[in-house]
Amino acid sequence: MDVTGTITKVLEKQSGTSAAGKEWVKLSFLIDTKTEYNNLYCFELFGEEKVSNFEKYNKIGDNVKVDFNVKTNEWKDKYFTSLDAWKVFKADGETSIPASTEAEVSDLPF
């Protein structure tokens, strides 16, 4: 699944150690799609590499496209749903014209 919107808030990084002894890092961020309904989404990024890349290339106010999975976990007969982002990139980049199209136009004989 994917959604496009503007980053409105980046929450503090969280980190810890799993029961198996493995270190983990998580970052949550919100985007606003500016649609009438269901316009606010809170995504989670897990893993040092994803969190680091997000912090390096994104900031509040950026228009981004987020590819994500919906995940639900059960704990003590309660269910928790999260939006796990696995790819975040600038939405503005999608509107550029591919270089091959420009080259084909310039090669016309007339």
Keywords:
single chain, 110 residues, alpha+beta, OB fold (Dihydrolipoamide Acetyltransferase, E2P), 5-stranded mixed beta barrel, 6 strands, 51% strand
Describe the 3D structure.
This protein has 110 residues and is an alpha+beta fold. The protein has one domain: Beta Barrel (OB fold (Dihydrolipoamide Acetyltransferase, E2P)), CATH 2.40.50. It contains 2 helices and 6 strands; from the N terminus they run E-E-E-E-H-E-E-H. The chain has helices spanning 48-57, 99-106; strands spanning 2-10, 14-17, 23-32, 40-46, 63-75, 78-90. Strands 1-3-4-6-5 form a 5-stranded mixed barrel. A hairpin with a 2-residue loop joins strand 5 and strand 6. The longest helix is centred in the middle third of the chain and has 10 residues, at 48-57. It starts with a strand and ends with a helix. Mean pLDDT is 86; it is low at 94-106.
List the SSEs and their pairings:
Elements lengths: L1 E9 L3 E4 L5 E10 L7 E7 L1 H10 L5 E13 L2 E13 L8 H8 L4
Parallel strand pairs: 4-6
Antiparallel strand pairs: 1-3, 1-5, 2-3, 3-4, 5-6
Summarize the structure.
This protein has 110 residues and is of the alpha+beta class. It contains 2 helices and 6 strands. It is 16% helix and 51% strand.
Q: How many DSSP helices?
A: 2
CATH T-level topology: OB fold (Dihydrolipoamide Acetyltransferase, E2P)
Would you identify the CATH architecture?
A: Beta Barrel
- Give average pLDDT, whole number: 86
Instruction: Kindly report the spatial arrangement of strands forming the biggest sheet.
Output: 1-3-4-6-5
Percent of residues in helices: 10-25%
Percentage of β-strand residues: over 45%
Any idea what the shape is?
globular
Q: What structural class do the secondary elements suggest? A: alpha+beta
The beta-strand count equals: 6
What is the highest CATH level, the class? Mainly Beta
Gyration radius over CA = 19 Å
Low-confidence stretches: 94-106
Calculate the terminal CA-CA distance, rounded to whole Å. Answer: 44 Å
Tally of discrete structural domains = 1
CATH superfamily: Nucleic acid-binding proteins
Helix-strand string = EEEEHEEH
- What's the story with the biggest beta sheet? 5 strands, mixed, barrel
